[in-house]
């Protein structure tokens, strides 16, 4: 979606700014559907493969119906149904994948299915990260249909709450090219503007504090973030904890058969002939913060081929290339991790796209999930794994402290705090997980499977009790209704 899609048609008798709709519905015409049809066919048949055409196809997807839907809409009589005039415009990287994208979708799906929600309507706009056609194609069809529906909802500015669901650098004025949030006329004309964000370190930098304080409210997911945001200078009266929902019906282990991990995994270290009686899984983007070095060191120090274990890393580049095999081998060599007599325990990397609809099967294929991260905003793969009843080993610091307990997981102790040495948060602090204790916990999970499975069951119970969609939808709806009553 681009900015031109939110411009209003010229009206010879314009209404006051406060009552103009944020976006107008598009009439279905040959001029509109034919280019989309041609572009869709071209991409499907492989005639266009550049990112340019893929992104423009994706942007058209939300502003156009398919040809069949378009024709059907011409003959379907409209129904007179009462709808509330007040709106919530949720702006997030809906078409991108990644943490903010999956979190925003979880809220939208929760609110949409929340039957008590009758005081406001929902509409969405892509904002933040760059669109990904692979991610869009991998969404379940029902989510795509919902996206079409919500994107085309009209709202009036003075009756609309805007949620800017992204990192503060994307808020108006954005520090990089993205659709502005809040959209023109920006802050003052809307009923309220909410920033939804989080950080993975011990503080918020000064510029982002200023951006947070321009918002009417700042929603953060955990008590950890309430403390760090207020401690960094964000107005305490603006900071509200709103936990994330997890779709416990979608991530339900009873519904799925295991994914064949070896069919997509590339063997990086060890032997493919090694038995895989116990599978560790980790899902993360390839960056130092995620603690992949801690994981590799602990795993390779603790296990050998004779242990009949395997480690699968589902990862993707983050400001780096895809040469994960050489990165791992270079790390092993530089860390002086000698090969055991029986040979290295195998490590596999999956770096190809896995559709969202297939993710539960990926978790179902593992015996345990492990993520020794240095800092997390929330840790979405962790709660997904917990909803799938997997025993989880994760660093007991930052966002995950909201839901990790000794009863439902294996909280990994922190050795010390260390300074962030590069990037925009240089000088901040984050956690250094304990390598030796990670070794012990991974061994314990493998050797005490009844205990591990019990923790996994408790984890799913806690996800249902505290973070299921209907519970979080109640929390969000109450917050929205309180604002609308002001």
Automatic annotation (TrEMBL):
Limits of the Glycosyl transferase family domain: 356-408
Coiled coil: none
InterPro entries: Glyco_trans_1 (IPR001296)
Ranges annotated as spanning the membrane: 30-48
Statement: the UniProt record of this protein carries the keyword Transmembrane: yes
Keyword tags: Glycosyltransferase, Membrane, Transferase, Transmembrane, Transmembrane helix
Gene3D superfamilies in UniProt: Glycogen Phosphorylase B
Superkingdom as given in the UniProt entry: Eukaryota
Keyword Metal-binding annotated: no
Protein name per its UniProtKB record: Glycosyl transferase family 1 domain-containing protein
């Amino acid at each position: 979606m681009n900015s031109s899609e939110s411009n209003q048609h010229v009206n010879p008798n314009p209404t006051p700014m406060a009552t103009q709709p944020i976006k107008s519905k598009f009439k279905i015409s040959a001029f509109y559907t034919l280019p989309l049809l041609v572009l869709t066919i071209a991409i499907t048949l492989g005639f266009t493969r550049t990112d340019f055409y893929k992104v423009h196809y994706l942007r058209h997807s939300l502003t156009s119906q398919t040809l069949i839907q378009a024709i059907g809409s011409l003959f379907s009589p409209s129904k007179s149904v009462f709808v509330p005039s007040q709106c919530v415009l949720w702006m997030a990287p809906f078409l991108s994948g990644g943490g903010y994208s999956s979190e925003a979708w979880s809220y939208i799906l929760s609110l949409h299915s929340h039957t008590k929600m009758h005081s406001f309507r929902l509409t969405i706009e892509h904002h933040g990260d760059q669109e990904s056609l692979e991610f869009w194609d991998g969404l379940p069809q029902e989510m795509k249909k919902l996206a079409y529906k919500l994107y085309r909802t009209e709202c009036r500015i003075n009756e609309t709450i805007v949620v800017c669901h992204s990192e503060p650098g994307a808020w108006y004025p954005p520090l990089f090219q993205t659709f502005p949030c809040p959209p023109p006329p920006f802050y003052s004309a809307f009923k309220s503007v909410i920033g939804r964000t989080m950080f993975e370190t011990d503080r918020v930098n000064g510029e982002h504090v200023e951006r947070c304080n321009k918002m009417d409210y700042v929603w953060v997911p955990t008590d950890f973030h309430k403390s760090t945001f207020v401690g960094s200078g964000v107005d305490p009266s603006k900071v509200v904890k709103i936990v994330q929902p997890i779709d416990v019906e979608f991530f339900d282990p009873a519904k799925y058969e295991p994914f064949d991990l070896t069919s997509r995994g590339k063997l990086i270290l060890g032997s493919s002939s090694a038995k895989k009686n116990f599978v560790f899984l980790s899902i993360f983007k390839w960056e130092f913060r995620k603690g992949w070095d801690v994981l590799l060191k602990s795993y390779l120090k603790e296990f050998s081929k004779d242990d009949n274990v395997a480690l699968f890393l589902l990862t993707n580049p983050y400001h780096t290339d895809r040469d994960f095999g050489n990165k791992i081998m270079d790390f092993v060599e530089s860390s002086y991790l000698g090969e055991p007599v029986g040979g290295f325990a195998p490590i596999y990397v999956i770096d190809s796209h896995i559709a969202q609809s297939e993710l539960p099967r990926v978790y179902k294929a593992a015996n345990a999930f492990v993520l020794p991260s240095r800092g997390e905003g929330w840790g979405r793969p962790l709660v997904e794994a917990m909803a799938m009843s997997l025993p989880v080993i994760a660093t007991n610091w930052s966002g995950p402290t909201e839901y990790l307990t000794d009863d439902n997981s294996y909280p990994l102790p922190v050795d010390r705090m260390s300074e962030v040495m590069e990037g925009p948060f240089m000088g901040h602090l984050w956690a250094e997980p304990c390598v030796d204790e990670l070794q012990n916990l991974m061994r314990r999970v493998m050797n005490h499977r009844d205990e591990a499975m019990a923790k996994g069951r408790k984890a799913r119970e806690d996800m249902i009790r505290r973070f299921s969609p209907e519970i979080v939808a109640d929390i969000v709806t109450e917050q929205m209704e309180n604002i609308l009553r002001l």
